[in-house]
Task: structure prediction
Amino acid sequence: MVLRTRRQGETGKLVTLFTEDHGKLRVMANGARRPKSRFAGCLEVGWSVHIACSMRDDRDLHTLSEAELVRSRPALVADLRRLSYAAAACEIVDRLTIEHEASRRLFRCLTGVLGGLEEVEEPQLESLFWYYQLRVAEALGYRPELEACVLCGSPPGSGPGWFSPALGGVLCRGCARSEAASDRAAPGDFGGARRVAGDGLRLLAELQGLRSYRREAIPPAPAALTGEIRGLLRGFLEYHAGTRGRLRSLEFLDTLKGRG
Result:
């Protein structure tokens, strides 16, 4: 799966791939930008390819020798909004993984969401992407706790709750206040926890409970909750991305929402 490309030299491409058996790889596709290159029409973000490359254990950059297109995604290319979600899905895998660490589960998450982005209805796009982010977090070993306070185990109740990226889940109001006091944070900051509506928490818990993608199981995204849930998941994933930086594709999705 092609995660990212950038120009290299006059005719080459530096390509980041996520593979089923070898995890993330960086490869040099020499001459890929020539009109008659053997790589032409293969190396686009979100597309699936079979590749051959020479790999050396002492190098992080490998040389691509062959690439054969397995699946292009014309439905994504033709729709800026769908293409933007696909780019964000690929960037999340790129940012949250290290090279040569294989995860077939994560590979299936990525291929599944790209297929889903091609077929769901427009109002389902956002919810599908939330589902994907939750599945990625689980595949990488930091599944967020959404149904009980991570400190005391009490249910969040019907009202708003707080979500802490650092603690990995929901906080009840009492524990949020205690965390804020222990961190000597400003009043109302709750130690960096983000306030989220009870309906938002319940929707995320419902999506997290889906064990596999089914088009009919993905609800439309409620407009009133979109900004809040986006911010929660983005903060959570960026916290775990650490020094690998902000997720720029998610920032672009925010600008698309603003235009709408």
User: Anything to note?
Assistant: Residues 184-189 have pLDDT under 50 and may be disordered. The helical segments are 74-77, 80-96, 104-119, 125-139, 173-182, 198-208, 223-241, 248-259. The CA atoms of residues 140 and 221 lie 25 Å apart. The first strand starts at residue 2 and ends at 8.
